[in-house]
Amino acid sequence: MTSQTPQSATSTESAGQQTSPDSHAPESSASEHSATSTKAGTKTSSTDSASHRRSATAQPPAAGSGSKSKGDKPVPLCTVKQLRITVAGGNADMQGSHRSLRFTNASNSVCKLTGAPGVSYVAGNDGHQVGLPAKRIVGHQPIVLIPNATASAGLFISSAPRKSGCATTTARGIRVYPPDSYQAAFVPLTEVTCSAAKSGPYLKVGPILPGPNNTV
Fold it and tell me: What is the pLDDT of residue 28?
């Protein structure tokens, strides 16, 4: 596996993607080698000289695909307590904003994330949900996060509530469920959305992929 800095992520495959509405359900070190050859009944051994030996130390990736860590031990799922979740970057067009929902491993242990997170607007001091949960784009692979590594899911924020004439409210953030988790994190994000409980969805979220700047 290629070494990378802790702020990127690598993947080895990409499945086909489709959009569907969803609710909030939850490297190995190299070694020195000696070559042995037999010719005319004589066995000779050749070993790389010191000047040609390659280092056996491999730096761990920032993030990568797969579900097993070094030594073939299963990698546990990332929990809310291990993650720092933020919204950053992106761009905007006539349809809305295309942002990056970032997941940084803030713990000292390796963990993995697989699939798209659950996302919804919340409002009020009680943090009640506003509108339908985000549509999730399915098609994904396991993303392994070492400590301080970041992966991200594209987050689309529709501008339709500002144009539809619906009764609006101001969401004070989003509730984010990491994949396969029944615990959520609150992420501050001020947006105008329709206030009806079953309106929308006005959010769309993609699967978590390598790198901090994915968008949809």
Answer: 34
Pairing label, strands 142-145, 111-114: antiparallel
Confidence class for position 164, pLDDT limits 50, 70, 90:
confident
Token output for 184:
């959520």
**C-alpha–C-alpha distance, residues 99 and 140, integer Å:** 19
Q: What is the average pLDDT score of the chain?
A: 77
Round to whole Å and give the CA distance between 166 and 83: 35
8-state DSSP, 199:
-
Looking at this protein, which amino acid is placed at residue 144? V
Cα maximum dimension of the chain = 90
80: left (phi over 0), alpha (psi -120 to 50) or beta: alpha
Tally of residues, the chain: 216
On the question of pLDDT at 126 being above 60, the answer is yes
User: At residue 131, does pLDDT exceed 50?
Assistant: yes
Exposed / middle / buried, residue 95 (Cβ in 10 Å: 0-12, 13-18, 19+): exposed
* Cα–Cα dist 164/201, whole Å: 13
